[in-house]
Amino acid sequence: MQNKNYSIFKQLTRTYSYVQLEAKRHHRSTIGIIIDMARLYIENGIGPNYYILAGMAEKTMSWQVKCQHLSNRNYHKALDILNPKPYRKLTQHKLNEKAFLTLSKIPTADFIGFYHPVKGFDSKGNVLTNIHQLSDLLSHYQEKKICIKLLEGSGGVGFFAGKIQIDVNAEIYVQSINKKETQSLSTLLAEYTDVIMSEGLLLEAYIEQSDKYAQFNPSSVNTVRTWVLQQGSSIKVIGALFRIGRKNSSTDNSSSGGHVCPVDIKTGKLTKGLTTMTPNREEFTQHLDSGVQLDGEILEQWQEIINCSCEALRKLPYTRFVGLDVCMTVQGPLIIEVNVAPDKDGAAHAKIPSYLLTQATNEL
Which of 229, 293, 240 is nearest to 78 (CA)? Predict the structure, then answer.
């Protein structure tokens, strides 16, 4: 009991320190923010951490706008109606997701193979269960870039991107895209031994993003996370975040310190960036590593991203709400990942009016 009380006290102390920072940042009184927090919690069930994360201490944010956010309970209640749990596995397993995207002609990275000691197969349906078969397959990808992904991984865990090389003895080597380290295929696979035996690995072509998107950070494929909602027969993007990797990082995941920039969904214009490593919004106008301008920049082919996102949700069965990771290539937008239960904090980061989910459920 004593440890529990200490933990609660520590949490309250930490929250209070962030409230003080917000009060200083926005030139408000600490007690005024606390009263505002308490009212929002009582009336809407939204806690103090979300309040801070969404920047609700800003003087310009009206009470009406604050109430456009859902509590954790109401968010998941709406999610369970919009996206019934029995059907979520369609996209939560990357092999199933890849099959759906490919079958429905939604632009996505080319499938190379599913590597598993029993169930493995390549893009042509050939058996892919041992390293000899995999080596033979990858021999056709010399000097090309590939990606390795966990079947149910998230946050960039287990992700690897590298270029295939073949030595004079016809042995396959893989050069890491960012670290420039080269290792044999067998050495690389040894890092995934347990995963290969249990669930297998997904191999797909590396995505080459457009120059305009690469300029924000060239080492990572930078993506737009769109929140797409079906209300009745209408499908629309209700919010978006642009996610940008850090220097020498191969992923743009915010959990790895990446930047996120809310996007004006009408124009594709970026607003100030932030990281998700702290509970409060420490905003900045330029990339913290390179100094590349973020605030005010307009994402190219924005309407194409909107159209691609809406079309993806239109084709998803038993799904009325989705968070999509979209990248831009020379050929146009491409779907990297489908999230049928996106993290609610994304609404705080991008200031997305998540109450629209509840409105959509009321129409069913």
Answer: 229
What is d(CA 69, CA 55) in angstroms, rounded to the nearest whole number? Answer: 12
The pLDDT tens digits of the residues spanning 279-299 come to 788 899 999 999 999 999 999
Instruction: Compute φ and ψ for 259, nearest 5 degrees.
Output: -90, 150
**Helix (H, G, I), strand (E, B), or coil: what is residue 81?**
helix
Distance of CA 219 to the CA centre of its chain: 17
268: left (phi over 0), alpha (psi -120 to 50) or beta: left
Assigned token pair, 88: 């979520």
Place of tokens 């090389």: 165
Coil vs helix vs strand at 4: helix
DSSP string, 41-67: HHHH---HHHHHHTTTT-TT--HHHHT
pTM, full prediction: 0.91
pLDDT digit string (tens) for 174-201?
A: 999 877 789 999 999 999 999 999 999 9
Rounded Cα–Cα distance for residues 59 and 116 (Å): 55
Scan for tokens 């893989």, then name that residue: 174
Which distant-in-sequence residues (6+ apart) come within 8 Å of 198 by Cβ? none
**Distance of alpha carbon 264 from alpha carbon 272, whole angstroms:** 11
Residue type, position 363, single letter: E
CA gap 117, 162 in Å, rounded: 22
Q: How many Å is the maximal CA-CA distance in the chain?
A: 72
Cβ–Cβ under 8 Å, residues 163 and 250: no
Pair 270, 240: CB distance under 8 Å: no
